[in-house]
Amino acid sequence: MPISYSVDREHLCIRETWTGMITAKELGDYWQCILVDPVVMVIRRTIVDLRQCRILFSGEQLADLVERIVLPMLNGKSWRTAIVVGDLAQEEISRQYHMLAESYSRDSVFSTPEDAMTWMQTQSP
Hints:
The chain is an alpha/beta fold. The protein is built from five helices and five strands.
């Protein structure tokens, strides 16, 4: 799967890595998987590294996935997300996600994983 995650127990966060070409279907399948993981649902703090991927979905497709998958599965729970980007396209989709997720997530965009972790350590779900 082009999107993978691991639990960072030391920092109490989830580390996601996106690699290769990411379609809306792959993101939807991934969200359906991660949002049923009981450990993830307790932590609800994610560092997402997009630097090694190419995003092939639109803002409209992202909005559809948030509406159909994320909102029902979170069921009112909050989230924190630090997004690490490497180019303008990744930054743009991250900003779109920020606007779509503002009802449940506090998030920020960074250019390095270190800056993302520094910010994440000040956040609680």
